[in-house]
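To: structure desk
From: M.T.
Subject: fold request, one chain
Message: Could you run this one when you get a chance? Sequence is below, nothing fancy, just the single chain.
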Amino acid sequence: MSERHTVAVLAPDGVVGFDLATPCQVFGTAQFADGTRPYRVLVCGSRPSVDATAGGSTYFELRAPYGLADADDADTVLVPGVARTGRADEEVLATLRRAAERGARIVSICTGAFVLALAGLLDGRRATTHWAAARELAARHPEVVVDAKALFVGDGRVFTSAGVAAGLDLCLHLVARDHGAAVAAAASRAVVMAPVREGDQAQFAATGVPDGRGSLAGTLAWMQAHAAEPLTLADVARHASLSVRTLSRRFSDELGVSPQRWLHHHRLLLARQLLETTDLSVPRVAERSGHGSANALRAHFARELGTSPQRYRHGFRQPPSDGHPRPR
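Reply: Done. Structure tokens follow.
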């Protein structure tokens, strides 16, 4: 791409430090195979130095290198979680309204959804926030359709996420939307993201790569290595030396998803990466990603991504970085 996508991360007083660092880390880490970076990240403060919070208390002062005016040309404007949910700086609200009017992508993490609601940007939209604040958001802003169960929600050009780690989910999802699964997978590995997190929306940005922690790490690695094979739940349980019932419970407890759903997400991610980075035909991609047939792969793409494998390849094709031909 000729110009980098600018992400403006707003830093009002009372911003949650972790939520602010999350988009900086994810978008700042993302890069193409040749090492070029697709995003430019700006931290834009309501004043040069703002109070940052953790757990509701002020723990440190944060210096913002850019002002709110610098967000006026950003492609994405993001509001991290904030300590104060009942009010917001009028300059911040004005910045968000201007961004929405010119068609920028608007994003919030955790209680940042309250700021979007105060700006009127969630009226009539489906949105989410931290589960502990969802009832308050619905009460304060009845015009918002609050989904307390979703990890993140996209409604048009406006995206909201639940608390803490769900901000990672959403940022990785946006990287995948912008630049495909391979770029998102690399960013996910860099931030040691959990393999797959279930939510109301499919979490396609998850890498499917175990992070080496938890009792299922070895089993997840084995499932990845054998993803092209017709694995059954009994096969996975046998490898893990567990009963099917215990295996399912472990997946639910540690990953928040069933073994079948984890494998389904990994296979879809694998198919996306193959379409982006190889010249393999659609039937061969289906075979190597464990979908079995081209028709099954097309059905999964239509259901999960709303597109076809060929259209997806056309949209997210990546040139080889070493000058060598792609695998066929």
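Reply (cont.): The two ends are 26 Å apart (CA to CA). Let me know if you need anything else for the meeting.
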